[in-house]
Fold these 2 entries.
Entry 1:
Amino acid sequence: MAFAYAPAPESRAVVDIAPSYGLFIDGEFREAAGGKVFKSISPSSEEVLSEVAHAGGDDVDAAVKAARTAYSSWSALPGAERGKYLFRIARIIQERSRELAVLESLDNGKPIRESRDTDLPLVAAHFFYYAGWADKLSYAGWGPDPRPLGVAGQVIPWNFPLLMLAWKVAPALACGNTVVLKPAETTPLSALFFADICRQAGLPKGVVNILTGDGSTGAELVAHPGIDKVAFTGSTEVGKAIARTVAGTDKKLTLELGGKAANIVFDDAPVDQAVEGIVNGIFFNQGHVCCAGSRLLVQESVADEVLDSLKRRMATLRVGDPLDKNTDIGAINSAEQLARITALADSGEAEGAERWAPACELPSTGFWFAPTLFTGVTQAHRIAREEIFGPVLSVLTFRTPAEAVEKANNTPYGLSAGIWTEKGSRILWMADKLRAGVVWANTFNKFDPTSPFGGFKESGFGREGGRHGLEAYLNV
Ligand code: TAP
């Protein structure tokens, strides 16, 4: 671990965080009806960033009513007019992206290089992309008159707070729906800044409502009878509970859940390139990525070479201050998530896998986990089966492409996969056999608003992004 050069961190003075925030309902910030609040802390320093209102049932009701009232005029607007608002929001996001990137890194713990160069550009790109669709829905192949659904209740996780908001809000609004969105308890701040951006853009009141709170707020929202559509991203466990809540109603549902992706390296892959892809696949965003390449499947004949090179590369990764532009791995999002990662990593050792991490000094305050890999992993081990959602890689080997497919598909999940090989025919053969919604070839964790994203099996259903992402918000 090299610490030779330490540039000045991005200053947190870039963003003005208020000591407290209310719920954003009907275009105004207001206290929760029950007066309840919770604290949002920085996972890297454990300092309190702000005190945030905790929405209860009455607040959910008020937000849904505001969204319902706004729906009649918003859905009646010509698509080109809705598009103008979305273009405006996209431009303001670009203008305020430095502020938002620092905020996201403070509240979530992710490295500023990632929030600045990945999250924020993608957030703006999603709004631009769906802004462009707003006046073209009649030409998208569903006939002349696709209709919005009504009020969408959207619940998002903490790993990409603003990007998950963009994935949900932009297509919903483009199609003429109004939304009530609940961000995760540990990362409420960028959604509240987004509320301010909606005001700045002059978005009619009630079109976007933001309810901060915990899982109980999310549960109230998805159960509310005034919701026409539920869009959820998060754990498979909560996704199943939501599916049970929605069952028997006429609410439309999309679920984007967990993953346990295989990143498959063949013996003809350029090793340096593959190693960069493995590192990006599992250590990007501390491994808090539903499509993370958390299982490395490496062909037996090159396993030693790939692992040697991977370990050398891992030893150069810098863990630390999310606001330092040289940081590769930031803070784990919460003490609770750190405990989950630690328990699963410990289970790997207990079950007989071999644990390795580079020498790595972790800060004394905050929540941290060193980049870690396990070799000698079998398919029965928990670390090969369960989503760790942290910077922990489980390495398995294979001999033949058929064995790689069998191992890759041996999971209840089916969100993503990666293939590293020089052979185009093998890529096509593998992509056809892998049960994964997204298959990357000679790259990993590449996202684009034009491209649909979503899973098979217990990774959920429905697609976000691209033209497919519109279908989730339309009666077609
Ligand atoms: P979840 O508990 O599923 O949380 C996701 C969102 O759902 C949060 O906004 C959460 O609120 C809310 N929620 C919790 N219980 C709910 C309920 N009964 N009804 C409606 N909404 C509810 O995920 P998590 O705690 O953030 O992480 C747990 C595990 O989920 C992780 O270890 C990881 O395996 C997985 N995960 C997957 C993804 C993706 S993108 N697939 C993202 C995050 C986490 P609160 O945050 O306020 O509790």
Entry 2:
Amino acid sequence: MFETAIYEVRGETAWITLNRPDKLNAFTAQLNKDVASAVRTASKDSSVRAIVLTGAGRAFCSGQDLGDVDENTDYGDVLRNRYNPMVMEIEKCEKPIVAAVNGVAAGAGMSLALACDFRILSEKASFLQAFIHVGLVPDAGNLYYLPRLIGHAKALELAVLGEKISADEAFRLGLATKVVPAEQFLEESAAFADRLASMPTKSIGLIKRNLKASWESGIEQFLDRDAQSQRIASQTADHKEGVRAFLEKRKAAFTGK
Ligand code: T3D
């Protein structure tokens, strides 16, 4: 289905695996395109209720393929035409997206993980703001997401110093939902994503949208958004099921509708 990514739907979870393991899943134009198309496919498929992004082999993604650029390339165009549309597919997605970070996430590979809603890290994972080492600046939304996740001072420190961050350090900074032993990584990532897939999908979409909007909104405008969102959520079958299940003292069976 895709040249450089594997797309599989397991149950109600779509798995997107970046598949250039020999280059530590470095981005080419094709991989940018494949990730964007795969996220779009999963977003549109009503049977999919959670999405996982991960990497084949020992890395999550090593950022731009440095062998695939030449110095005459306009990097601004590369970002506008390749990276930004990929990030925007993730940004627009109403379903929960988990980055299952199996190994190193460097440069734009780190940006990709930051754009996701959750990061489950293998103990072998690491983050590297590689950009500074090649005289560039973090891109693909990196400096948009990073300060929102860990604050301005730490974001600046990571971006400027470009030191490798271990999985445990990433967890301490607030960059990871959890860190899991390598041998349980796939199982735990799947369990986490499947748990999200069994939850009230529309509520998750509204939570995502509202949290993002909170950064650009005044309180009055935001309270109005709360009211609009709750109106939408209260009309879902999942809301009705949740209340019924509570009253009947049983576990709710949410359908994402
Ligand atoms: O158009 C634009 O350029 C604008 C967009 C820029 C966005 C960016 O992402 S800029 C940042 C680009 N990424 C990097 O600078 C990271 C470069 N890679 C590394 O620093 C290291 O490879 C890692 C820290 C990620 C991993 O180190 P290690 O020691 O575990 O592995 P390695 O031996 O360095 O790499 C293994 C192979 O993958 C190796 O190939 P070989 O020698 O076995 O044939 C290496 O060259 C290749 N590889 C790793 N990263 C990249 C790569 N090849 C091309 N591009 C890469 N980014």
